Amino acid sequence: MTTGEDLAALLAREIRAAVAETSPAAPSGPEEAAPAELDDVLLPLKRAEQYVTPTIPEASRFAGAKAAVVRVLRFLWRGQASFNALLLEASRGIVTAFERNRRAVDRGFDDVREAVGASERESRRRDSGQDARIAYLEALSPRSPSPEGSTAAEASIPEAVYALFEERFRGSPEEVAEKQRFYLPFLRNLPGPVFDAGCGRGEFLQLLKDQGIPSRGVDSSGLAAETCRAAGLDVRQGDAIEALGAVPSESLGGVVAFQVVEHWPAAATLRFLAEARRTLAPGGVAIVETVNTDSLAAMNAFYLDPTHVRPVPPEALRFLFDAAGFREMRVEYRSPLPDSERLEERSGNDARLNSVLFGPQDYAVIGRVPGP
Hints:
Number of strands: 7
Mean pLDDT: 78
Radius of gyration: 38 Å
Largest sheet: 7 strands, mixed
CATH class of the largest domain: Alpha Beta
Strand content: 5-15%
Helix content: 40-55%
Number of domains: 2
């Protein structure tokens, strides 16, 4: 038999369940401030919520009795109240989803604007370089004879045209820098700054600068030197070997030359290495990168450049390092071709054939000056 106390307890549980069921769910995290343009939607929703779960102000007359009546009546209208609460939650969810989508669209527009800005900056850089080349070519006299002693390449390939050639066939500055990043560990904690012979557009100098490694460079191209200086790099125009010859003995920590020695005869390369050995302090490092003559695919690219003088085999360059007085020499093969451009290796003979036909495109000899 059910007593009055049992009925009261049962009624209290039903009322609490009805109140919990009709009350809107609490947000799971901190609520973000909504933009002002949504006030005309959010404010009516907030007012509507007050009618879903009405409350009696404590200061009103007979507040306790009125509150008890409201709790009892909630038990009677809980179906309609639940529908109203769910409808309000759905409306708020729609508004939230709309605002989230708007913010995502805004972020997408920001990304597009950044990409367009980067493209415009790159276009301005290329246009500036092209204007400089055109001005240089216009300044040339087509009827003037070639200087005595100049090579055919020097007479027919002005630096402005060669700069365009490098930009088209060598790769973007980002691609070149990514390949040269490999050499950074060899040049940390050296006993002096790094000298970059034939620094070109300054990709490696920028890498060194970003690492806090002091450096400077020389390039024979006035356009390249000007581009580097505009980027805040310490570069001057001139002959790399002569510039290195003017450096005091044992004052450098590193000397590097990327894709340079193939432009020189063997005697010039040996002189360069001898000057590098003289200018490097004990513990200093020299790095020379050039085209890998052991790869037929690389040699095909070698003859693409009309200013190349002669290929330098790895053993020949290693010998010149040794003759100049370097020690702890090592050969590093770089720039491997992707698998899509190599033979599928199913045997040891396939691997040997790949190394001859489609081996790494470049190699570098790294030598060190003996320590004290």
